[in-house]
TrEMBL record:
<dbReference type="GO" id="GO:0030665">
    <property type="term" value="C:clathrin-coated vesicle membrane"/>
</dbReference>
<dbReference type="InterPro" id="IPR029390">
    <property type="entry name" value="AP3B_C"/>
</dbReference>
<dbReference type="GO" id="GO:0051138">
    <property type="term" value="P:positive regulation of NK T cell differentiation"/>
</dbReference>
<dbReference type="GO" id="GO:0006622">
    <property type="term" value="P:protein targeting to lysosome"/>
</dbReference>
<dbReference type="GO" id="GO:0048872">
    <property type="term" value="P:homeostasis of number of cells"/>
</dbReference>
<protein>
    <recommendedName>
        <fullName>AP-3 complex subunit beta</fullName>
    </recommendedName>
</protein>
<dbReference type="InterPro" id="IPR002553">
    <property type="entry name" value="Clathrin/coatomer_adapt-like_N"/>
</dbReference>
<dbReference type="Pfam" id="PF01602">
    <property type="entry name" value="Adaptin_N"/>
</dbReference>
<dbReference type="InterPro" id="IPR015151">
    <property type="entry name" value="B-adaptin_app_sub_C"/>
</dbReference>
<keyword id="KW-0968">Cytoplasmic vesicle</keyword>
<feature type="compositionally biased region" description="Acidic residues">
    <location>
        <begin position="695"/>
        <end position="739"/>
    </location>
</feature>
<dbReference type="GO" id="GO:0005794">
    <property type="term" value="C:Golgi apparatus"/>
</dbReference>
<dbReference type="GO" id="GO:0019903">
    <property type="term" value="F:protein phosphatase binding"/>
</dbReference>
<dbReference type="GO" id="GO:0060425">
    <property type="term" value="P:lung morphogenesis"/>
</dbReference>
<keyword id="KW-0653">Protein transport</keyword>
<dbReference type="InterPro" id="IPR011989">
    <property type="entry name" value="ARM-like"/>
</dbReference>
<dbReference type="GO" id="GO:0034394">
    <property type="term" value="P:protein localization to cell surface"/>
</dbReference>
Length: 1097
């Protein structure tokens, strides 16, 4: 997604207005993670007090408001809760009260509930699973907005255990009559693929189905899913190519960018190069002396006849041309790169005007557009020469824009406009932006090398800059002059003399080194100046920069070989100084030069060739554009911007020599009259005992219409307009057995949970139509009416395809059931097995499901999220002991999904050998009495250099005893063990200060352990105490009204016993550490581990 979705589209979205950002986020289905959206920030109308204890009181009030019978109170409570989330407050304990309102009839309340659930879905996975059954019922709601929102939230819950449910929901949504729901199904495909890539083949089937959709709402989303899941499956595009080309103008802007990039890659594989014609025309453009005009014209006509553009190729270029006038910069840039990579060179010039128009946009858009123009201007200067003045630098431009414009002006320089550009460059050199002034001097040097007529002029101008007061300008001029003089050094002895005089004033190391190099290289042309320069440099040798010292050594060596009478002693003096220099590079260079130039008995054969080595003619440097090598990346992509291959980048293939068979894009056209007769004929076959509208559907539709009429906010209107809810067809199904989803049976940790439910009564899908609202625009009406007619014509074919699917999948039962949370075992036959075992539902989760009472308030003591998760890993098996198999483990501090009494452990296995390791599994458990362990499923093979992380659970029975077992492969078994730190045997709990004191009063006497410690001077601050304690133990913070008292609470994983920790700071540097718990052994061990941590700094 990162690459083909054009880097420029991100920048355009950021710079647009708030309303367009919200609309774009709706079309992109942006999921809120930790940062709140603009809409959520706007919802906040309350100010959260800075004291923690007020939040606890407010949470109780919010629970009462959520249980109110008034929608206004519930809506106000949800706004306050989203406001808390926006301010970073933890609202997880409100989950039971919030989740009850998922079934609310008020659309506004539902939308805010969905935002809340998505926020805590990833952190609170067990809590998020509570709402699965509600979303399943919402997927069959008559209102298309509710169906789409339910699918969007369901796909945002990143829990591998619900992958089968998500897969089934996506399949059903892809056949929905509403194009808005099908659009959300396409978005969900990408999320499911990132969660479980093993579902790729089943997702490709859904993508293939959605690619045939004729709705413009769905086109962009399904192409994005195609690019993310299976970009190499070009065969899926063949039959849909012409349809996508024709729909392109009507698709939303985000979809246009995605489709254009995909079609660019497709065209490079299916059509021959249109550039052969241009190349042949250029070669034969010059007329021979004895050749007439008619003969020349016939010759050109023959060349044109040899190449005929494919009609499909022409269709793509013709249908994208109107998009050059789009208001969206990303769309214009996408069309520009398509013309650059696909169109004949003679037609590519039309994009230049559109790209220049984008230079009036904000600076971010300018930056991307200028980068692409810089790449284009290297190969085809003529495209942008008419717009030369558009690239003149303005004083208000930022440095990055100035540099890019300067680069383009340099690329466009020729004999005709060089005088104008040099006058412009003279102004730029005087700029206060020193970085830009230095870049201008380099540009002058490039113009001098590329255009020989102005070489002397540029060189004289650079020499004049040597008297500039600005040291950076002078230094850059010296470097550029040095490169220019390398091309023709014999003609510029005076310039070298002038630069030698500047050594007394220039202090920039690069400039000083360049002057010394020039004098050394031309020492025979300036025989009187060079020895004097060496004398001055010998005086200041010890204080010079390392770069300058190296050039002084080189200068001395060259003068020793050419003028030894005057410089012999000076050179030996410099070599002696370099021999004892602090830098080893200088010492090594000194030894090398001494052995090479100073003759002695030990001198080798190289000393005879010292003069040829030092005074060899150096090749002149080649001044090139930094954008020269970027043309191998596709324009408009992140890789082109960074000049490095980014993750997810899809390379453009070379043009094929012979075009593949074009008949693969042919589609059989069915007459519309036959379609209408078939549909109308089959529509009459309705069972006599069934009503066209059932009572339940009428009630549901009335409820949804009432709830829609009650809410009239702008966000709702925008969502309705985009979805076309009033015009598009809706369907509903019988939900008579929805109440049975809440009746779950309690099971043990290792037993599988099953649920028997009555089969659904098969009901035909019904079509509902509602009156068009006044707020709908005509464009939405057209798109929705088109989608309505498309879905009606394909209605019967969808029913037939569903029957065929049932035949091809023998694992499915003929009587289809509603999939609930506890029916996950039904999917094991269909889903592909993975390395990590799909766990059964834990008894703790089942108890939560069973005990969820919609009228009762939650307990004041709840398990909370861990404040800190240390990434420290422990070695389980060394690679030497494991014969190449290495294993390590760490504690993720999350409730175990296998059993609520087990500690969650994540084991990482690495294959460090060059051979495959097969059948990795656990066996021969040697556990103390009462201790249990849930092993991971066997791993069939681990590739060389491969790594895999698996989850397991161990019930340590609230002790630090070691769990011993064997880690086995196909050939060997290795004895390993896991010993938990005492801090990992706890789960953090959230409780108020009042509850903490009450529980602490019940745990006194023998249940209390305390110690007085001398705290480090750095530790008394609350953040330091918090960091030290939560790093050792998995504890939750309890709000405290006193600054010198810090309280923490947790419960043991196995027995659920409370662990209360209090740190009381006293006068001086002493502190009282108190631990209250029924588990005195664990309490004393924890006290022993916390004491040194709080004492040391």
């Amino acid at each position: 997604m990162e690459e083909d979705f054009s880097f420029l589209s991100h920048i355009s979205a950021v710079s647009s207005t708030v309303k367009s950002v919200l609309g774009l986020s709706e079309s992109l289905q942006v999921t809120m993670k930790s940062e709140p959206t603009v809409e959520e920030k706007g919802i906040v109308d309350t100010v959260i007090e800075p004291f923690e204890y007020t939040v606890v009181i407010r949470n109780e009030d919010l629970k009462q408001m959520l249980e109110s019978n008034k929608d206004s109170a519930k809506l106000d409570a949800m706004k306050r809760i989203v406001g808390m989330i926006a301010k970073g407050k933890n609202a997880s304990e409100l989950f039971p009260a919030v989740v009850k309102n998922v079934a609310s009839k008020n659309i506004e309340i539902k939308k805010l509930v969905y935002v809340y659930l998505v926020r805590y879905a990833e952190e609170q996975q067990d809590l998020a699973l509570l709402s699965i059954s509600t979303f399943q019922r919402a997927l069959k709601d008559p209102n298309q907005l509710i169906r789409a929102s339910a699918l969007r939230v369901l796909s945002s819950i990143r829990v591998p255990i619900i992958v089968p449910i998500m897969m089934l929901a996506i399949k059903e949504a892809s056949a929905d009559l509403s194009p808005y729901v099908r659009k959300n199904a396409a978005h969900a495909i990408q999320k499911l693929y990132s969660l479980d890539p093993e579902q790729k083949e089943m997702l490709i089937e859904v993508i293939e189905k959605l690619l045939k959709d004729k709705s413009t709402l769905v086109a962009g989303s399904v192409v994005m899913a195609f690019e993310e899941v299976c970009p190499d499956r070009i065969d899926l595009i063949h039959r849909n190519y012409r349809k996508l080309c024709n729909l392109l103008v009507d698709v939303e802007e985000w979809g246009q960018v995605v489709i254009i990039h995909m079609l660019t890659r497709y065209a490079r594989t299916q059509f021959v190069s249109p550039w052969k014609e241009d190349d042949n025309l250029e070669e034969n453009s010059e007329k021979n002396f004895y050749e007439s005009d008619d003969e020349q014209k016939e010759k050109i006509d023959k060349i044109k006849k040899s190449y005929a553009m494919d009609p499909d190729h022409r269709l793509l270029i013709r249908n994208t041309k109107p998009l050059l006038q789009s208001r969206n910069g990303a769309v214009v840039m996408a069309v520009a790169q398509l013309y650059w990579h696909l169109s004949p060179k003679s037609e590519a010039g039309i994009i230049s005007k559109s790209l220049v128009r984008l230079l009036r946009s904000n600076r971010e858009v300018q930056y991307i557009v200028l980068q692409n123009i810089a790449t284009m201007s290297i190969q085809r200067k003529g495209m942008f020469e008419p717009y030369l003045k558009s690239f003149y630098v303005r004083s208000t431009d930022p440095t990055m824009i100035k540099t890019l414009k300067l680069e383009i002006l340099t690329n466009l320089a020729n004999e005709a406009n060089i005088s104008t550009l040099l006058r412009e460059f003279q102004t730029y050199v005087k700029s206060q932006d020193k970085q830009f002034a230095a870049a201008t001097i380099q540009a002058i040097g490039r113009c001098a090398t590329n255009i020989s007529e102005v070489t002397d002029t540029c060189l004289n101008g650079l020499v004049c800059l040597l008297s500039n007061r600005d040291e950076i300008v002078v230094a850059e001029s010296v470097v550029v002059i040095k490169k220019l003089l390398q091309m023709q050094p014999a003609q510029h002895g005076e310039i070298i003399k002038h630069m030698a005089k500047l050594l007394d004033s220039i202090t920039v190391p690069v400039a000083r080194a360049s002057i010394l190099w020039l004098i050394g290289e031309n020492c025979e042309r300036v025989p009187k100046i060079a020895p004097d320069v060496l004398r001055k440099m010998a005086k200041s040798f010890t204080g010079e920069d390392d770069l300058v010292k190296l050039q002084i050594l080189n200068l001395g060596a060259k003068l020793y070989l050419t003028n030894s009478k005057q410089t012999k002693l000076l050179t030996q003096y410099i070599l002696n100084l370099g021999k004892y220099d602090q830098n080893y590079d200088i010492r090594d260079r000194t030894r090398f030069i001494r052995q090479l130039i100073v003759p002695n008995e030990k001198s080798g054969a190289l000393s005879k060739y010292a003069k040829k080595i030092f005074l060899a003619q150096k090749p002149a440097p080649l001044l090139e554009s930094p954008f020269k090598d970027r043309d191998h990346f596709q324009l408009g992509t992140l890789s082109h911007t960074l000049n490095i291959k980014a993750s997810g980048y899809l390379e453009l293939s070379n043009w094929p020599e012979v075009a593949p068979d074009p008949s693969v894009r042919n589609v059989e056209v069915i007459e519309s009259a036959k379609e209408w007769t078939s549909v109308s004929g089959k529509a009459k076959k309705v069972k006599p005992d069934e009503k066209f509208y059932s009572e339940s559907e009428e009630d549901a539709s009335d409820d949804s219409s009432d709830s829609e009429s009650e809410t009239g906010s702008e966000s709702d209107d925008e969502e309705n307009e985009e979805a076309g809810s009033d015009e598009s067809s809706e369907y509903s199904s019988d939900e008579s057995d929805s109440e049975s989803d809440n009746k779950n049976q309690l099971a043990k940790c290792k037993s599988k949970t099953t649920e028997e439910s009555d089969p659904d009564e098969k009901t035909n899908s019904k079509l509902q139509s509602s009156d068009a609202s006044d707020s709908e625009s005509s464009s939405i009406e057209e798109s929705s009416s088109d989608s309505e007619s498309d879905t009606e014509s394909d209605y019967e074919s969808k029913k037939i395809s569903q029957k065929e699917e049932k035949k091809t999948w023998p694992e499915r039962k003929p009587n289809k059931k509603d999939v609930s949370l506890l029916d996950l075992d039904d999917f094991n036959q269909v889903s592909t097995p993975v390395a990590v075992l799909t766990p059964a539902i834990s008894p703790g989760l089942i108890a939560d499901l069973e005990g969820l009472n919609l009228s009762a308030s939650s307990s004041v003591i709840n398990v909370s999220t861990p404040i800190f998760v240390p990434m420290k890993t422990h070695e389980l098996l060394h690679r030497m002991s494991g014969k190449g198999l290495a294993a390590s483990y760490h504690f993720p501090r999350q409730p175990c999904i296998f059993c609520d009494k087990m500690v969650s452990v994540q084991v990482t296995l690495n294959n460090t050998t060059d051979q495959k390791i097969e059948n990795i599994h656990l066996s021969d458990q040697k556990l103390p009495s009462g201790m249990r362990m849930h092993m991971f499923s066997p791993i069939e093979s681990l590739e060389p250099g491969g790594s895999i992380t698996v989850a397991m659970g161990i019930d340590f029975c609230d002790s630090t005893q070691t769990a011993c077992f064997q880690l086995c492969t196909k050939d060997d078994c290795f004895n390993v063990n896991i010993q938990p730190p005492v801090g990992e045997l706890l789960l953090p709990v959230a409780m108020s200060e009042k509850d903490f004191r009450r529980e602490q009063g019940l745990l006194t006497g023998m249940n209390e352990t305390s110690a007085t410690i001398i705290a480090s001077p750095q530790n008394p601050t609350p953040p330091m105490i918090l960091e030290k304690i939560v790093n050792v133990a998995n504890l939750g913070i309890v709000p405290s009204g006193q600054d010198n008292i810090h309280r923490f609470a947790a419960k043991t994983v196995h027995s659920g016993s409370l662990m209360l920790v209090t740190v009381e700071l006293k006068e001086g540097s002493t502190a009282q550490l108190i631990i209250n718990t029924e588990k005195t052994v664990i309490g004393s061990i924890l006290l022993r581990e916390l004491k040194p941590v709080l004492s040391q700094g």
